[in-house]
Amino acid sequence: MNDNTNIILTLIIPVYNTPSNLLHKCLDPFTQFNDSRIEVIIVDDGSDIKTANLLDEMKFAVSSRVIHKKNEGQNRARNTGVSVASGRYMGFVDSDDMVDTAVLRKMLDADLWNNDLILYEASIVDDKGAFIKKICKTSSCSKKEYVRNCAELWLQFINKDFLNRHGGLFLPDGQYIGEDLASILPLVIDSEHIAYTHFSLYSYTIHKNSIIHTLNNNRHLSILKSFDHLLLSIDGDRFTEYYSEIEWQAINHILNFESRFQLSSGFDGLRNVHVLRSWVDNHFPHWQKNPYLISGFKTQDFKFRLVLKRHYLLLILLKKINYLLMKLHS
Description:
Blueprint: E1 9-15, H1 20-27, H2 29-32, E2 38-45, H3 49-57, E3 63-69, H4 74-84, E4 89-92, E5 98-99, H5 101-109, E6 117-125, E7 131-135, H6 143-149, E8 156-159, H7 160-165, H8 179-190, E9 194-205, H9 211-214, H10 217-220, H11 223-233, H12 236-241, H13 243-263, H14 270-283, H15 291-296, H16 302-308, H17 312-329
Parallel strand pairs: 1-2, 1-4, 2-3, 6-9
Antiparallel strand pairs: 4-8, 5-9, 6-7, 6-8
């Protein structure tokens, strides 16, 4: 076991019945990677016995710990890891994703570890590991630009003392979506020292069976609870300073992504679209004048423009046409 005083970074990996092939892809690098400056804490969030046994049987080269607990959701699992972490910085890894340990060693060697947040780049891959696209939210080195784009806990390392001083992670009950956004956006706004790096560290796996793609329409409405938390977590002066960026997050996540998800189920989703729209109208009554929306509207994709202009029936029709075309070609 390594001397805990040497540990700079704790990687916290919540696990809930992750398919074994993806879980091995995530964890196997740490069976070979040996560096006394990191530890890995795996939190089994109530998985089945097969997954729990797999975790117990793995032998890691780095300082490690496996914690078994009842199922309470991803952020509560993450928080369990934070509560026992020895590192000065916290990194959050989804159990179907992967960290490049060679890049991680370079980051540990770099002069980065005196910041509130350390940002890095990522790649989106499919469940076979094939590259889809790059995620780079750090190119402008602008805090306001990151405030309007940040949404993922796994795209930065967070100073543990800074995290705890600002209330820790968002830990709601009955939350199904938006936990990352509600946790990271207030931290980014309150941060004084951010390292914007171009280390391509993280591979994010996108697959159809992920939790976000299997939730029902009503559970997707819990995004509003995330935004309620955001608005309560940001003090008045900071809220005023970053109003346009926070408003853009609401436009993009609630009016765009979540409304489109609701409409993907057809006419049954219309009621929830109106609920989402009403929330934004009530909390950001002049959102149509948002500077990011005005300057970038014409460059947004066709469906973004349709949903913001309330062409809901057309979106439903396009979805049905696309489904029929896919069926004809299958």
